[in-house]
UniProtKB/TrEMBL annotation:
InterPro entries, A to Z: LpxK (IPR003758), P-loop_NTPase (IPR027417)
The protein's role, per its UniProt record: Transfers the gamma-phosphate of ATP to the 4'-position of a tetraacyldisaccharide 1-phosphate intermediate (termed DS-1-P) to form tetraacyldisaccharide 1,4'-bis-phosphate (lipid IVA).
NADP found in the keyword field: no
Pathway the protein contributes to: Glycolipid biosynthesis; lipid IV(A) biosynthesis; lipid IV(A) from (3R)-3-hydroxytetradecanoyl-[acyl-carrier-protein] and UDP-N-acetyl-alpha-D-glucosamine: step 6/6
Gene label: lpxK
Keyword match Kinase: yes
EC number(s) stated in the UniProt entry for this protein: 2.7.1.130
Catalysed reactions listed for this entry: a lipid A disaccharide + ATP = a lipid IVA + ADP + H(+)
Binding site for ATP: 52-59
Protein name from the UniProt record: Tetraacyldisaccharide 4'-kinase
Signal peptide stretch: 1-30
């Protein structure tokens, strides 16, 4: 489902009409968050979450933290709900035997960087990661889920979209009021181009430092400068991917914006392939979409991986180091 445009308009009659429902949603979230956690792990649990519904950059952030903590010598495991996957879990993701229909696209991608466990019951997933030898557990999403105690909450927000119109679902894009969520956050990571980061200036508690980052594409081995492409993306905000391609010099003749996690059916892929051949275009997609492609189709599409670059990790490094010392 694509987010409605009125979520990002400061004044909207539709948002105003939906405000009573938004108030009920916010009240339900507040009641859920106040619940005592069902489980407290014996190792540190770091939650990478958001206040917005939809894509904010959690997966690249989790990848970056996996790499950073692994380089420091920690056995890092990831626990994910496995959105879009059919398996209840807990199950350890194996890219050789699992596909996106079973475990979801994001866990398949994360499994390339750290042992990843999928579980609809997050507490069961955390326990599975402990049994598997985790020193540190990264909880992918779940900021508003009370089932597991989180030792540190990192909230991720897209600088361009910000907190939208500031309203809660369904009147706006937020899972809870921004001020309420930020009061529980240990750090805020703002991801986007510098001009958008400079413009986005939310009020933060003194205990919640701000980090700034952006997603940079990795070299693909194929020169994109001037290359005519048909781009397709099923992520939270496909337009960001199309903008990245243009910044890399590609001639984006057409961009197919899919729903987040949308299944890549044979009908859809055949249509894209026929169009690309007829118009002399190269098919290009995101790393997250590529893991959902059938193996026989992947060679026909160029994948553009992106990695998170953070200006200054120190505020978060300091908090994580203190957490790890406390839990030793």
């Amino acid at each position: 489902m694509k987010p409605p445009l009125f979520w990002y308009k400061p004044r909207s009659l539709r948002a105003l009409m939906l405000q009573p429902l938004a108030a009920l949603y916010a009240r339900a979230t507040a009641a859920r968050v106040k619940k005592r956690p069902d489980y407290r792990a014996k190792v540190p649990v770091i939650c990478v979450g958001n206040i917005n519904a939809g894509g904010t950059g959690k997966t690249p952030t989790t990848i970056a933290l996996c790499q950073r903590l692994t380089e420091q010598g920690f056995a890092v495991h990831v626990v994910s709900r496995g959105y879009g996957g059919s398996l209840e879990g807990p199950v350890a993701v194996d890219p050789r035997t699992h596909d996106a229909d079973q475990v979801g696209d994001e866990p398949l991608l994360l499994a390339a960087f750290a042992p990843t466990h999928v579980a609809k019951d997050r507490a069961a997933g955390v326990q599975a990661a402990e049994r598997a030898g985790a020193d540190v557990i990264l909880l992918d999403d779940g900021f508003q889920n009370p089932s597991v105690h989180k030792d540190l909450n990192l909230v991720v927000v897209d600088a361009v979209k910000g907190f939208g119109n500031g309203r809660v679902l369904p009147a706006g894009p937020l899972r809870e009021p921004a001020a309420v969520g930020l009061a529980r956050a240990d750090a805020l990571l703002v991801i986007g181009p510098k001009h958008a980061r400079d413009r986005f200036q939310p009020d933060l508690p003194a205990t919640c430092p701000r980090l700034n980052g952006q997603l940079d594409p990795l070299p693909t081995g194929m020169p994109l400068d001037g290359l005519p492409v048909l781009a397709f993306a099923g992520i939270g905000h496909p337009e960001k991917f199309f903008a990245t391609l243009k910044a890399m010099g590609a001639n984006v003749v057409r961009g197919e914006a899919l729903d987040d996690h949308q299944p890549l059916t044979d009908t859809l892929l055949n249509r894209l392939e026929v169009e690309a051949k007829a118009r002399g275009l190269h098919m290009v997609t995101t790393e997250k979409d590529a893991v959902r492609l059938p193996a026989t189709f992947r060679t026909k599409v160029t994948t553009i991986p992106v990695r998170l670059m953070v200006e200054d990790w120190d505020p978060l490094d300091t908090k994580i180091a203190a957490l790890l010392r406390r839990r030793d």
